[in-house]
Amino acid sequence: RREPLALVNLKKKNEETGEEELASRLGHCKAKATRHIFLIRHSQYNLDGRADKDRTLTPLGREQAELTGHRLASLGLKFDQIIHSSMTRATETTEIISKHLPGVKKISTDLLREGAPIEPDPPVSHWKPEAVQYYEDGARIEAAFRNFIHRADAKQEEDSYEIFVCHANVIRYIVCRALQFPPEGWLRMSLNNGSITHLVIRPNGRVALRTLGDTGFMPPDKITRT
After folding, report:
1. How far is 71 from 211, CA to CA, in rounded Å?
2. Where does the record locate the signal sequence feature (predicted)?
3. Which residues contact residue 124 at a Cβ distance below 8 angstroms, ignoring those fewer than 6 apart?
4. CB proximity list for 137: less than 8 A, separation 6 or greater
5. If you count Cβ atoms within 10 Å of the first and of the last residue's Cβ in the chain, which end, N or C, has fewer?
6. Is 226 exposed, middle or buried (0-12, 13-18, 19+ CB in 10 A)?
């Protein structure tokens, strides 16, 4: 899903037709549509839960998810799918959001689960996971980026609008990678609960960040970052 030239086997180029055939084959590999990626951070959840199943949304978190769902619905876009982290807080956020987007299919994945993507630069004193966690989580979150953040398939004719409900660390890392910024800077960004981050991927592979962590649609007393 990179440059079309990288998807064509140049060794199989017909010697008789030469460049003309190559141009034709490249045309079949070029993206035509734009992908709109909406990255949603899960709503506020119970921090006292020891296991993932206990870390359910708080009453305020459920309100935040309702507000996010209403905001997404108000955009008037035809969303293609909602892909969400399999963790409880992301799944519950997705269920509430999806009520505002009837008919949009939901897909759960472990790739988008929260974790430590890469050692941040500069380091922070209040958050220091074990080094092994970066290797375990980092490979998975990088796999999520490569799997989900790419230009449209060449067969896609119309622009698409997709929602990803996951976690702050995952979203921040994806934004850095998508914009080709040093990924070690991911922790310099801060995202509110239920916030919307909008990435646009053009057919030529260029990426634009429309919004980062938007919660302007929430009343001030409903905004949290926990």
Report:
1. 14
2. none
3. 187
4. 115, 116, 117
5. C
6. exposed
